[in-house]
Amino acid sequence: MDEVRRQLEELLFSSVEDVVVKSVEVTETVVRGEAQSTVRLAACPGCGCRSGRIHGSYLRFPRDLPAAGKFVVVALRVRRFVCAEESCPRRTLVEQVPGLTRRFGRRTERLRSTLASVGLALAGRAGARMAAIFGAPVSRNTLLRLVTSLPEPPIAAPRVVGVDEYAQRRGRI
Ligand SMILES: [Zn+2]
Questions:
Q1: Calpha distance 114→135 (Å, rounded)
Q2: 123 CA → ligand 1 middle, Å
């Protein structure tokens, strides 16, 4: 079973560090993998303090990219930590798994970026139709929201041409 589990970890979470697969369940339409982070400390988004004091845990179910024609759902057990800084107004914090989820995210990062690419290429209505065909149904509004939340591409700073340089250039023509 350990060998199978390692292969599943490689398949499902090859780009994510510190995550172990606890179990996998395959039905006719869904692959459901239960996973858990193994990091010992989580950073508080309020004060930046790192804490290892666990308050509890619960399951999140981010939707993932489909595999072998089945929906993939990650049952991710996330832990709630108690902030170690007493003056911090945020008493507890929920761990995030970089590369897999973000705060309030209902999709894994790879599904999110795939849908954003589809939205960029095809826009709302056609993009939503395409996403449904490859097994990741999404509304056109959500698709457009994923596109608008992409970071802006860097804009090259315009080069300032001085008066002398301008004149020299003209002189050369
Ligand atoms: Zn804090």
A1: 12
A2: 40
Q: What is the mean pLDDT of residues 89-94?
A: 90
Q: What is the pLDDT of residues 4-52, one digit of tens each?
A: 777 777 877 777 788 888 888 889 999 888 999 888 888 898 898 999 9
Q: How far is the CA of 19 from the centre of ligand 1 (A)?
A: 24
The pLDDT, as a whole number, for residue 118 is 94
Measure 150 CA to ligand 1 centroid, in angstroms.
28
Which has the closest alpha carbon to 129: 117, 116, 143, 145?
143
Domain definitions of the chain by residue range: 16-97, 107-151
**Percentages helix, strand, coil for the chain, rounded to the nearest 5?**
30, 30, 40
CA dist 102 and 32 (Å) reads: 19
Distance 47 CA to ligand 1 centre (A): 4
